[in-house]
Amino acid sequence: MPAARRKAPDMPRSDKPARAVAPWVRTRLRTAPWAAASLALLVLVTAYLAAALPRAVDRYETEGLRDGVRTAAPRNTVLELTYTIPVSEHGPGLAPGFLQGQREAVRALFPAPILTDPEHSFHGVRTVKRLTGTDPWLPAPDGVPPEFLLSAPSALTENAKLREGRPAAGTADAPEAVVTAKTAESLHLRPGSVVHVPSKLSVVPIAVTVTGIVEPRAPESPYWAVEPLLHTPALTPLIGDEIKYYWQAALILSPTSAPAVLSTTGAPEVFFRYMPEAGHLTGRDTDRLDAALDSATGGPDLVKMRKTVKANAALATQLDEIVGSYRSMREAIDPVVAVAVFGIGAVAAVVLAMTGGLFVARRDSELSLLRSRGASLTGIGLRLLGETSAVAVPAAALALGLAVATVRPPDGGSGGIPLGPSVLAAALVALLAMLVLPVRAVVLHRRPRLHGGRDDLLTARPSRRRTVLELTLLVLAVGAVVSLRLRGTGDSGDHLVSAAPVLVGLIAAMVLVRVYPLPLRWLARPARRLRGAVGPLALARAGRAPSSGTLPLLALVLALTTAAFGGSVLAGVADARDRAALLATGADARIGSPIEWTPLPAGLTESVRGLKGVRDVAAVQSEYGVSLPSTQGTAVQPMSAALVGVEPASYTRLAQRTGFGPFPAGLLASTGRGGEDAVADTERVLPAIASPSVAERLGKGPMDIIAAAGVFRVKVVAVRSTTPALDDADFLLVNGADLTHRADTSLLVTGPVDGAALRAVVKAKSAQGKSARGKSSSLVVKLRSEERATYVDSPLQSGAEQIYLGAIGAGAAFAVVAVLLSLLQSAPERTTLLARLRTMGLTRKQARRLLGLEALPQAVLAALGGILVGWATVPLLAPGIDLFRLALATAPGFAPLDSAPLRADPWSLVLPALAVVVLTGLAAVGQAWWAGRRGSIKELRAGDAR
Q1: Cα 392 from Cα 41, distance rounded (Å)
Q2: Dihedral, CA atoms, 357, 359, 361, 364, nearest 10 degrees?
Q3: What is the torsional sign of CA 20, 26, 29, 33?
Q4: Range from 84-98, 170-184, 728-742, 891-905 carrying the lowest mean pLDDT
Q5: Whole-angstrom Cα distance, residue 849 to residue 835?
Q6: Which pTM was predicted?
Q7: Quick check: 179 and 253 in contact, CB under 8 A?
Q8: Strand order of the sheet with strand 703-707?
């Protein structure tokens, strides 16, 4: 009997489920590597744009604040602490070492984020009131003696070099000073000169001995620029019954001579000057900087400074105005930029949703099989979530790292950019990419589906939920647009206002999807009568497009709306700058003198006319401040205007080209009586074109004009609000040939003339005029291109424009992706259709026509929808948006333009729409070509219904 087999011991059973032989995520990624790589690339690009955007905005805002502080004049940014010197003060309180100790103690008291540059911190003693020089040998142009500023600044030897004489020494009783070379030349000073100024202690004036002449090492440095009178004297007008000019200059005392100012009548004071640093500031520091400046100029920190120096100390600065100007520009630009950000964000979200839809469509049979074999929705959703997470999370993390590495803080990394907004943006992109596939799959397969069921617009009936959603979005869009029109873009935190174009585009896309099949079905009926089956078949298939076509249409409409709005913004900015530059110059180039009534050299007009690129030249004679009579007599307030004499033919051509007050040349027809021979003919009547206020004052009848150009009468024959010769002033335009004293004062040049060549000709003719008349004409050449460049001097402006350019480019790229995804989603079905039709005799040419005609209706619909939505959105939002601060670097009232309204740009509306149609047609033709190269064995396999 065989030996009995031993019974195996009972093994403990585990309740844990058996481990899968092949893990789901790894298997799926290996099965479809190209699909995973495509999703990773899309997430990488989208997450990079999302993460880089807040860093780019923070960067240009930081650069804008720093640039505003650095480029401002030192006299506007300096922090100057001053206190008056009491009468009882004596020498020890003004000792250089004592003042330097006070300066350093005060510098440590400035609150954060105010930091001062120790190399540009100075102290000293000066007179607030200027002292009259009593010496008779001092120059007095109109009999008015010069006035002197006595100042004893620190660190003179580090900021100036001795040119002649010796450095100043002296004492309080025998003060010594040095002067700059310009001061010495203008005031006739030299080493050894003694300047006497009044004393408040006796009738004997104080004698200040000039011991040397110095030359500033850097006249533009804060040491000299805060108080320009230290290095450059000024010829100042004295306004009275008649204007008289006198000199103002500075005597730079030595520190040991500083106590001498106590004996003068100049109200002496001690000053401490600190130049602020900007390298550590960021765009987020504006509130802290405002609070710090308020505290330092009139708050707790000023109290601390007063305890350190004197109880009457006061801190003065205009840095708060610079910060306020930066803040107002940022608040005006941010809402405009937010519109582009919301637009491109919406397009990116729709494209990600389309990607998930494509994956669900390709795996529809697989998911249906899993559901039929008992797979739960939760299990399917979690497995799909694992697939997308394995792809989206690493791609988003890599995108975040690239954004941090490529968009660095300005100035070599000082003042870090917060990482939180970029992390949040990249996480949102990753989350959307992770959820779109499982959510769409769960929603689509929540109920059992029939195999091969139709999924087109014939069977897709709008549900009540969809109707409610569309109505809700419509109400939100209307509310956003109305809110924007009523209160403008002042509230930068109102995201609903910024999203108004997106909501309008969303509603338009939903409406277009509902009405889309109807016109195609109407066209299909008469198309049946045409020869051939390609046209009717294409229209019939386009009319029964898949119901999933909502997302491609929405993506294209939003992309076109964003491109139209962004293009209109950029076009409006460029137009405002062009118009402002043209108003400032009057033509492509302007030649004239800053001194009124300076005639042009003889032969200059002919020389300029002969330069290469010059198409036309208009000579103008301008006289400002001409008193105007009134029809109401002397009872009204006096008024003056500019009298402009022109040559009607050339000036009319210029006015027509620029659009500034064009008029027929015949309106200013010459009377035939002008020149020196018409001096006695004061009753001649000259036809004139006037600005509205001048025309209202002069009335319709002839009025007397008394000017340096002659005495005559004028009659207003036309009214114009602008004219090329003047940017913003009342004017009276007459024929220059009728003036008594004819002398052109400026030239308005039309054409792409070379600035260097033009300046060379003007310089040569000015030199000839100087030798002929014995004085220089000091002509200035102003080019329109150079004037336009001055309107783009802020990183805030250039940064916002780059954001808009990037948004337009990204929108175009996402639109291309949307077109490709739409074609890829229906590619298997179209390939099968072509294979079957080829068995019936369809040629390759007909196949390309079929796919092209089938794809074009939706592209044309999206193009028309984008044009209409863009055209409607721009006028709707335009009343609440002013592009002035984005276009010009100055505030309203300080530029030739007062506003820069937003207008729809036709090219921005039409070109992107045409590009979408052409791209869609080319993609469809390319798909037909590729399908024709492949074999049709797989598509014609028996029993394969899909």
Answers
A1: 9
A2: -130
A3: negative
A4: 891-905
A5: 15
A6: 0.80
A7: no
A8: 703-707, 710-719, 685-690, 731-735, 640-646, 616-627, 746-750, 589-592, 780-783
**H, E, C per residue of 816-857:** HHHHHHHHHHCHHHHHHHHHHHHCCCCCHHHHHHHHHHHHHH
Distances in whole angstroms, Cα of residue 211 to Cα of each of 124, 131, 186, 225, 251: 19, 19, 17, 23, 11
Give the β-pairing of 640-646 and 731-735: parallel
Percent of the chain as helix, strand, coil, to the nearest 5 = 55, 15, 30
Cα separation, 670 vs 686, whole angstroms: 8
- Confidence band (pLDDT; 50, 70, 90) for 304? very high
Average pLDDT over residues 341-345: 87
Contacts of 936 (CB under 8 A, 6+ apart): 834, 835, 838, 839
Give the DSSP letter of residue 123.
E
Angle between helices 844-877 and 795-825 (to 10 degrees): 140
Token couple for 27? 């298997």
Give the residue, 481 or 139, on which the prediction is more confident.
Answer: 139
Lowest mean pLDDT among 38-47, 244-253, 271-280, 670-679: 670-679
Reduce the DSSP state of residue 316 to 3 states and report it: strand
CA distance 182 to 159: 16
CA dist 695 and 904 (Å) reads 35
Contacts of 519 (CB under 8 A, 6+ apart): none
Q: For 772-825, what is each residue's pLDDT tens digit?
A: 444 445 788 888 888 888 777 688 888 888 888 888 888 888 888 888 887 777
Rounded to whole angstroms, the Cα distance separating 748 from 657 reads 12
* Alpha-carbon span 279 to 413, nearest angstrom: 10
d(CA 881, CA 867): 20
What is the DSSP track for 225-259? HSSGGGTS-EEEEE-SSS-EEEEEEEEEE-GGGGG
Chain center to CA of 335: 12
C-alpha to C-alpha distance for 769 and 775, rounded to whole angstroms: 8
Query: Tokens 């740009």 identify what position?
Result: 905
Q: Is 448 exposed, middle or buried (0-12, 13-18, 19+ CB in 10 A)?
A: exposed
CB-neighbour burial class of residue 714 (10 A; exposed 0-12, middle 13-18, buried 19+): buried
Q: Are 470 and 503 in contact (CB under 8 A)?
A: no
Element (H, E) at 597: none
Each residue's pLDDT tens digit, 857-870: 777 888 888 888 88
